[in-house]
Amino acid sequence: MEANLENGQMTNASTSKSHSQRQTTSRRRQNDSDVAGGVGITGGGVVILPQHVLNELYHNYSIKQRRSGLKWFVFAAALFNIWTIGIPWDQSAPTRVINCCMLVAYLALTALLHIGRRSGKPALRRFHQILLIIVPRALWLLSILHFTVYVILQPSFSPRDLLGWAILLNFLVYVTLPLQLIFLGLSIGCITYFICLSLPVGYSRWDSLLSNQLAANAVLIATAALIGLLYYFMGEAKQKRAFLEAKKSLEVKMVIEEQSAEQERLLLSVLPKHVAIKMREDLGSSSSEAFKKIYMSRHENVRNINNCALRFLAIAIIALAVPLMSVQITPSCACTWDSPW
User: Fold this and answer.
1) Residue 278 within a domain
2) Where is this chain compositionally biased, Polar residues type (predicted)?
3) Which of 73, 114, 214, 283 sits in a 20 to 30 Å window from 120, CA-based?
4) Which of 133, 145, 65 lies closest to 101, judged by CA?
5) Does the residue 6 lie in any domain?
6) Are 144 and 195 within 8 A, CB to CB?
7) What is the extent of the structural domain holding 184?
8) C-beta separation of 178 from 61 below 8 A
9) Residue pLDDT, tens place only, 216-260
C-alpha cells in the first residue's frame, strides 16, 4: 500500500509538473505572439515594436525628410522653363505660349503644397497629406511633358541642345523627389533615362556623328543617374542612423520615466507624502546637505485618537449593558472626546 501511495504521489507530481510546464509554454507562446503581432513591453519598460511597424515608421520618416529637397526640383525646372521661353530667339509664338503655360503649371503645383499646411482643421490637414503624395509625381510628369513638347516643337534640333538639362533631370529624380526607391523610384528613373536619351535622337537632324553623340549622351546621362543613386543611398544611411538613435533615446527615456515612477511609489509607501516631497526636493538640489538631514517635525496638542475611541467604545458598551444607567452615562460619552488624559 505504501508503494502504491508513493507511486500515486509521484504520478500526481509528474502530472502537475507537466501541467505547469504546458501553462508556462502557452504563456510564453502567447507573449511571443503578442510581441510578433503587436506592441510588446519588456520588464524594463522598453517598448518592442514589430518589424513591419518599424519599417512603416522609418518609411514615413524618410519620406518626410526628403520632402525638403522638392523645392530644388521646382527651382531647377523653373530655371529651365525660363530658359526655354527667353533664350531661343527664333522660336515661334505658339512655342513661347506653351512654355509660359508650363511655367504657370509649375507655380500652381508649388502653390498647392501650401494648402492646409498650417491649418488646424482635420479636413484641410488630410487634403494636405494627399497633396504631398500627388504633387511630386505631378511635378515629375510635368517636367517630362515639358521636355517632350520642347523637343517636338523645335524645327531644327540637335541632341546636344538639351543634354545639360537631361543630365540634371536624371540626377534630381533620385535626389530631390520624395519617393520610395524600390519599384516607383527606379521606374521613374528608368523612364526618365530612356526618354532623355531616345527622344532627342529621334527628332534631331541627320548627322554623321549622330551615333557617337548618342553613345556620349548615354554615358553622361547614366553617370548622372548613378551619382544620384549614390547620393540617395548615402542620405538613406544617414537617415537610418538618425532614426535608430532617436528610437534608442526614446527607449532610454521610457525606462528612466518608469524607474522614476517606481521609485516614487516606493518612497510614498514608506514615508508620508509631505516628507517624501521635501526629501525629493532636497535630493534634487545640488547641495550635499540633503544626506545629512533628519526629517523630524514637532506637533502641539496632539491626541491619540485610538485611545479616545477605545474609551468611548467601553462607555458605550456599559450603557447598552445597563439600560437604567444610560441616562447617567450619556454625558460621560459626550465628554469623552474633550476630556484630557
Assistant:
1) no
2) 1-13
3) 73
4) 145
5) no
6) yes
7) 51-253
8) no
9) 999 999 999 999 999 999 988 888 888 888 888 888 888 888 888
Element holding 278 (H helix, E strand): helix 273-284
- Tell whether 321 is covered by a domain: no
Average pLDDT over residues 69-87: 89
Q: What letters, b where the CB count within 10 A reaches 16 and e where it falls short, cover 133-157?
A: eebbeebbebbbebbebbbebbeeb
Domain assignment of residue 41, yes or no? no
Burial classification of residue 221, based on how many CB atoms lie within 10 Å of its CB (0-12 exposed, 13-18 middle, 19 or more buried): buried
**Cα atoms in the Cβ-side hemisphere of radius 13 Å centred on 155:** 7
Number of domains in the chain: 1
Q: Supply the pTM of this predicted model.
A: 0.62
Phi, psi values for residue 173, rounded to 5°? -60, -40
How far lies 71's CA from each of 67, 75, 111, 235, in Å? 8, 6, 11, 17
What is the pLDDT of the chain when averaged over all its residues?
Answer: 75
Grid cell at residue 11: 504520478
Q: Which residue is associated with the grid cell 554615358?
A: 219
